[in-house]
Amino acid sequence: MEETKKMKVLIADDEDGLRMSMAGIIEMEGHDVVTAENGLKAIEEVKKQSFDIAFLDIKMPGINGVDTFREIKKYSPETVVIMMTAFAVKDLIKDAIKEGAYACISKPFDMDKIMETIKEVSRKPFAMVVDDDPALCSTLNEKLKEEGLNVFTKCSGMEGLEALSRKIPDIMFIDLGKNRNGLETYKKLKEMFGDKAPKVVMMNSTPPESTAQELKQLGVSEYIKKPLNAEELKNALQSLLTHQKKGKILVVDDDKNLALLLKDVLATSGYDVDTAHSGEEVLKKMQGDAFGIAILDIRLPDINGLEVYEKIKQINKDMGVIFISGFSQDEHIDEVIRKNKYIYLHKPFEPENLIKLIEQIQASKSGK
198: which DSSP letter? Predict the structure, then answer.
């Protein structure tokens, strides 16, 4: 079973009791919630920060929920909007769904249904399309939604880069352009985020083979030609999402060459991998990223691996850890490893053995 990401949720409803009780239940599930008693307040909140999901009551005093939705989309196209209503307002519902609302839920509603909707949204990959062709943006938007992605579009590289300050998508589709402006956008993206940059699919009308090779060398994940071919798009997505689903791994070793080697091996196998070289660096990266597994050297320059392990578990109790070491351990460490039945590999080890352990941890976490 896939884990539900922590989401930022906005609830706008003029019914105080419903708004507050709904917020309390969602917060109990570990999500961050902000509430607004009307549409204008909701718009103000969206201007200040990005939300993953917004629940909007259709019938509110002042500006109604559909007009609120339209305004929110101007400032925050990345927000998934779900309408709520206790009234028969078919025309308003139809308008909202036509203009991109994710769903409409009738009151009184079952909170289990609300939570299931949040889980559903959280598990869908998020894509940004950057292209100055409105028709292509519209077509690609529809095709990506059919493939199960949440999508928003921007008409220039500059707008796309600015939008990243609010939300970083999982995948970006960038038009290379006649003047190769898309390549500059990609380079700036890598400067801003480095290894944490989203996967990039570059699009263009049949460039020379050398351009496609150049894009691959620069780290572009996939390349597709215009006009878009549905099967080619589907294959590119399947490749990207298969890699994404394999999970995020943190490799921790003060030997930078070994850490880089393990990163390359795991990335080739489809994992999303980051590295750290000290206990302090591990804890900083843990605060900003949802890693599923850590490969942890027992001997680090500042904090030993067992102490780092305890701190990791305080941050994320479900995180899997594989200890590695090339040294003979002292008796205390050996005893702790045996007593707690920690997973341990002695250096040097075969990469295949490491990957098998990772797969076993993931299978146990998914209940297989």
Answer: P
